């Protein structure tokens, strides 16, 4: 009986090492997750334009990697066009829903962070200032 135990223990140790090695290989990064994220981004990548008023337009350009730029143009009847530009980050929760976050500074309120929610349907994007998607959305069209 003692002789059989001597052969079983090394086999059990080898089996344990094999199981642990397999566990490390199986727990690698999930490539499918990256594919889903890029699929979600593909719905918004590009330039979107909204008319805020008869004198003001806002253009958002979504780039891959969750980053983008904006151009806000106001046509003042006295001083001419005024343009504000900046950057934003965005995160997609699904293929049609995401959030945009901007950070900046202005002389009136100091440092600020602003987050808005948007939904995409084809070449139309609706944007709300709160997560509940209440109120009148700002409507963007894809260029």
Summarize the structure in short.
By secondary structure, the chain is of the alpha+beta class. The protein contains two helices and eight strands, in the order ααββββββββ. It has two domains: 2-30; 43-142, Lipocalin (Beta Barrel).
What do you see in this structure?
With 143 residues, the protein is an alpha+beta fold. It has 2 domains: 2-30; 43-142, Lipocalin. It is 26% helix and 48% strand. It is built from 2 helices and 8 strands; from the N terminus they run ααββββββββ. The longest helix is centred in the first third of the chain and has 25 residues, at 2-26.
Helix-strand blueprint:
Layout: H1 2-26, H2 31-42, E1 46-51, E2 56-63, E3 67-76, E4 80-92, E5 97-106, E6 110-121, E7 124-128, E8 138-142
Antiparallel strand pairs: 1-2, 1-8, 2-3, 3-4, 4-5, 5-6, 6-7, 7-8
Care to count the β-strands?
A: 8
| H/E element sequence | HHEEEEEEEE
Per CATH, the class of the largest domain reads Mainly Beta
What share of the residues does DSSP label as strand, in percent? over 45%
* CATH topology description of the largest domain: Lipocalin
Regarding quaternary structure, how should these chains be classified?
A: single chain
Cross-sheet strand order for the largest sheet = 1-2-3-4-5-6-7-8
Number of contiguous helices: 2
CA-atom Rg in angstroms? 26 Å
Q: What is the typical, i.e. mean, pLDDT?
A: 82
Distance between the termini: 81 Å
């Amino acid at each position: 009986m003692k002789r059989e135990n001597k052969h079983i223990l090394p086999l059990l140790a080898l089996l344990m090492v094999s199981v642990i090695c397999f566990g490390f290989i199986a727990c690698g990064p999930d490539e499918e997750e990256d594919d889903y994220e890029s699929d979600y981004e593909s719905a918004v990548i590009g330039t979107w334009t909204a008319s805020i008023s008869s004198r003001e337009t806002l253009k958002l350009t979504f780039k891959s990697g969750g980053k983008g730029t904006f151009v806000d143009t106001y046509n003042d009847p006295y001083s001419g066009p005024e343009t504000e530009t900046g950057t934003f980050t965005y995160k997609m929760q699904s293929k049609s829903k995401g959030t945009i976050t901007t950070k900046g500074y202005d002389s009136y309120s100091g440092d600020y962070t602003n987050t808005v929610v948007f939904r995409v349907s084809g070449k139309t994007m609706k944007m709300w200032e709160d997560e509940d998607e209440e109120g009148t959305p700002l409507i963007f069209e894809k260029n």
